[in-house]
Write a structure and sequence with these properties.
The complex is a heterodimer of chains A (569) and B (163). Chain A is an alpha/beta fold. In chain A, strand 14, helix 17 and strand 15 form a beta-alpha-beta unit. In chain A, helix 3 runs parallel beside helix 4 and helix 11 packs across helix 15. Chain A is globular. Chain B contains four helices and nine strands. Classes of the chains: A alpha/beta (569), B alpha+beta (163).
Amino acid sequence: MELTGAEIAIRCLQEEGVEYLFGYPGGAVLHIYDALFQQEQVKHILVRHEQAAIHAADGYARCSDQVGVALVTSGPGITNAVTGIATAYMDSIPMVVISGQVPSYAIGEDAFQEVDAVGITRPCVKHNFLIKDVKDIAPTIKKAFYLAKSGRPGPVLVDIPKDISNQKTEFSYPKTVSIRAYHPVGKGDSAQIKLAAKLLLEAKRPMIYAGGGVVLSGASAQLTDLVHLLGYPCTNTLMGLGGFPATDKQSVGMPGMHGTYEANMAMQHCDVLIAVGARFDDRVVGNVEHFAQVPRKIIHLDIDPSSIAKRVKVDVPIVGELKPVLDELLAVLRASKRKPDATDLAAWWKQIKEWHDKGGGLRYKNSTEIIKPQYVIETLYKITHGDAFVTSDVGQHQMWAAQYYKFDQPRRWINSGGLGTMGFGLPAAMGVQLKHPDAAVACVTGEGSIQMNIQELSTCKQFHLPIKVLSLNNRYLGMVRQWQQFFHGDRYSESYMDALPNFVKLAEAYGHVGMRIEKPSDVEPALKEAFARKKELVFMDFQTDPKENVFPMVPGGKGLSEVVLSEDL
Amino acid sequence: MRHIISVLIENEAGALSRVAGLFSARNYNIESLTVAPTEDATLSRMTIVTRGSDAVIEQITKQLNKLIDVAAVMDLSEGEHLERELMLVKVRAEGAARDELKRMADIFRGRILDVSANTYTIELTGTRAKLDSFLQSIARDLILETVRTGASGIGRGERILKL
């Protein structure tokens, strides 16, 4: 039977097992929305802004191992989506975005709501397609899903002109897919893996540095086995939190700009460093010249060859899927007669403990007068028993959430690490809550970030999403203010949030529960009450200390050992 | 250092802009870029001349390989290779210069493709250095137009880039 292009697009999503489609209708996608209306399998979530559709699809993908899917119209629909697509691209999130385009005969004529969607998204997608023939819709969507989730994942855009979505052709969904020039890697090179095992076993001061790749590839179990088998310290990056349990005694906390002193000192002073699905980015290793001052052997496991030797020189590169690579590495290590030198390892752990005691770990001075943001996160951790899904926006609150919520499982911590997109947290939480309807989902945000996508409170009402929003309201764009305090002579240029709305009334206006919390003694009761309201979205406006800063801090451009531990030092 | 990179790429709309966009987005230099379909019309072959440290060239080849449309990449400069560029030069050919320009074209094994009462259009092929030295050998004020293709490159002998 012949179907229209629009019907085919929806049938393809059904074939891919798509549960939720996040989107916003418009002229160029009217045929697709009409096809969507006439079926029930794919449920559409109507957001209030296209950026939120992409972040919601992104949150859905991050908390599961499925591809997030979004549908937007041409012109402003796709330009609004670009921030979301770039966010997903920077963090390698599998996603398929379908966009409407003006009719094919009008392309290039500056038609109403026309924009070169393929051109404008090219630098921030894994790949994109402009459909030119209705017969291409099914094979292209098949390819889009395959590309999005295979290899190093990423967003893929399929742009469908309006006339093509209304043309008819026979539908059959391809069972297989092959792309001549695309061959994602699988296993790693066995000789390199043996070399890595040898280096690891000979190490005197070893360090395991695990990134977001561990979470994305579902290799947490293998990583955990590796850390336990060797007895070495492990640090998990902002993107890798939960890849190895934060409460494990071999976890030394997060590395990087706001990482723990012991994690950064161990990164700097180790003699063998194994990077597992991590990319040595500027927020993790800081100044690469400073990092290179201490000689160390580096083993780098990554699925993307271009991540290797991009910022630091690597001695043993291993390109492959993390799971089979780690499985093989574990097998080689287990079969080896040589074991890690117990004396060297004990001395190394002693050194790490000294760093920890000197100024490591995480410390803040709590107060009975004013709410400390760290205390809110610690209390959140306590009352959710470390079992919540936590999304965040971007800024100080994001760092405190990453530092003080101890993630023991992967896919529980959902944040925009690479692009650093304010406005990510609430829509991402929608995707998470839809995927896990009965789970506790907390969105840790600030009064700045939340206002970048606050309209989604309306979506939350429509789809009954009982998200718990924790806004750490310090009346400042806190991270900007912190940098201005440290590096710009206390000149707080445009970082003060004046004329804030009454968030309690705002939440109530959207049909939710609002709370304003001003005293430290009210933090725990408020959180308990909020999480007890299992069916309702609760917006908690915590009035936090406006002067609190995030520590430790490695200032931008500095080396990992040039850390500022706290205000007093 | 100067490198010549050959790329086999799907002959599809937008493929060229993916490569050009990659170079500008990652701040890589392009000295020249040529592209045309191969004997297999579904594939185009591109020759990119670029400059960069070893680390930058390594990233360029990796990033090119990462593009979904790119089927194969070879850094020709890593081994024996041939490089040729085509140049068309239109010169003012009047009076004494008319004979001199004909002689220069012969010395450089060029061909005069078009003759008018006052001009010659000369075709030259060779390495970039040869074409540069031809231009330096004739008086600047006689050159009316130059058009160069940029280098095309190919490996010597059994160094073959093919799917």
